Amino acid sequence: MGESKFLNYNEHRLRKPLLRKNGVLVKTTTEEAVRKSAEILSCATYPILYGWSNTSCEAIRVGLELAEEVGGVIDNTSTVCHGPSVLGIQDVGYSTCTLGQVRHRADLVVYWGSNPWSAHPRHIERYTAFTQGRFQQSTWYRYLAHLSAYRSQRRLLRALKLSALRKAPLHREVVQELPPTLFRKDRKMIVVDVRRTRTADIADYFLKVEPNKDYEVLEALRALVRDEEIDADQVAGVPVKTLEDLADIMMSCKFGVIFFGLGLTMSAGKLRNVDTAISLVRDLNRYTKFMIMPMRGHFNVTGANVVYSWQTGYPYAVDFSRGYPRYNPGETSVVDILARGESDAGLVVASDPVAHFPKAAAENLVKKPLIVVDPEPTATSLLADVVFPSAFVGLEAEGTAYRMDHVPLPLKKVVEPPNGCLSDVDVL
Predict the structure, then answer these.
(1) Model confidence over 288-309: pLDDT tens digits?
(2) Where in the chain is the domain with CATH 3.40.228.10?
(3) Mean confidence (pLDDT) of the chain
(4) 301-312 and 57-70 helices cross at what angle (nearest 10)?
(5) 411-428, pLDDT tens digit by residue?
(6) Distance between CA atoms of 415 and 396, rounded to whole angstroms?
(7) Cβ proximity of 271 and 92 under 8 Å
(8) At what angle do helices 83-92 and 271-284 cross, to 10 degrees?
(9) What pLDDT digit, counting tens, does each position of 330-348 carry?
(10) In sequence order, what DSSP letters do the residues of 42-109 get, joined into one string?
(11) What's the rounded Cα separation, in Å, for the pair 373 and 180?
């Protein structure tokens, strides 16, 4: 990140096109690699084109034209991360905002099934708890005091353990009762997850729920917001009294936002979890202003969904095999196609599916002719038949990317790429 991104990005990268001959990848010319790739795609009857979340919107647009030309399936990484979010939003819509509005106005921030301190390291610092907004103050100094007290507590526990006075845990026990600090008028942060994370350590309150029980907690909160009674002592391991207090805090804030991650989209319920979270926000808007936003991962995965939608009408898993776009996740998504062994060629752009797909899908991907466009060597490129070294978008090539709140950002060219490294747009 930051300075190191500019200084060290060029250490381990591909500089020449590679072509597999006699089972070995050897250096070749760009013209020969293009000719071989065109031959693979034009001879295929059902090719897949996958990736697209780490490249520019301009490259994605050309990729869609290519998918239509060869009659293949084009899919992005939403299919393995926030696909349920897309489906849930299609079902019920959602109330959202920009990160700038969150920075300046949000006095209650809820991270649900997300660990931004590790996965989105600048999110809290720039947009939520630690940033200085126009109408909300930063909680950075409060965090430093909290961290100092926590370190002192750990040192004390370690000393007690070493002195054999008692066996003390090195981690704090999870307390489900809400602390008095949550009832302050200034900015507050709540984390909901199945285990304590680094983000939970810096939050004002951590609510631990049982695994795969997010749906039950969300529905319980909806019932409490609608002033309905719950005939139970606890829900998903959380006392109902705690949920009642949490619902009161959410209803009494001036501007609240829920950021949800893969802990919500990839646990039991999937898109129904997202449906319910959006419905909770809709219910809260009867009392106050509340928003919801998915914590997208790859830097332009939102842009991939946007470009797919404006070109085809569908956000991912688009099938052009009949000459027009079709969309049916579970049937036309790349993982399912590979699991069924239906594809006969593949083009991977700015992604590494071999390292992340299920074993059966990855095996079927590399059994067929495979083309990879990527600036760095990956597990997928090592098993490919043709490899194109590409320029880094935002460093060696310009373009456009969409932030997680659907704000388009221009990506500038800073340095020249090495000879032989074309941009993704030029390769496609």
Answers:
(1) 999 999 999 899 999 999 999 9
(2) 84-294
(3) 91
(4) 50
(5) 999 999 999 899 999 999
(6) 5
(7) no
(8) 50
(9) 999 999 999 999 999 999 9
(10) HH-SS-EEEE-TTS-HHHHHHHHHHHHHHT-EEEEGGGGTTHHHHHHHHHH------HHHHHHH-SEE
(11) 54
**Cα distance between residue 358 and residue 314, in whole Å:** 24
Q: Token pair 């309150």 is at which residue?
A: 205
Q: State the span(s) of the chain assigned CATH 3.40.50.740.
A: 14-81+299-427
CA distance 371 to 423: 16
Q: Is the pTM of this model over 0.70?
A: yes
Nearest partner of 187 among 131, 126, 129, 140, judged by Cα: 129
Between CA 182 and CA 242 the distance in angstroms is: 12
- Report d(CA 262, CA 80) in Å as an integer: 10
Q: How many angstroms separate the CA atoms of 368 and 361, rounded?
A: 12
User: What gap in Å lies between CA 14 and CA 9, rounded to an integer?
Assistant: 12
Is there a contact between 399 and 365 (Cβ–Cβ < 8 Å)?
no
Closest residue by Cα to residue 48 from 280, 362, 414, 390: 362
Query: At which residue do the structure tokens 């003390």 appear?
Result: 168
Q: What is the pLDDT of residues 376-386, one digit of tens each?
A: 999 999 999 99
CATH number of 84-294: 3.40.228.10
CATH topology of domain 14-81+299-427: Rossmann fold (3.40.50)
Query: Is the Cα dihedral 78, 197, 244, 137 positive or negative?
Result: negative
Half-sphere exposure at residue 191, Cβ-oriented, CA atoms within 13 angstroms: 24
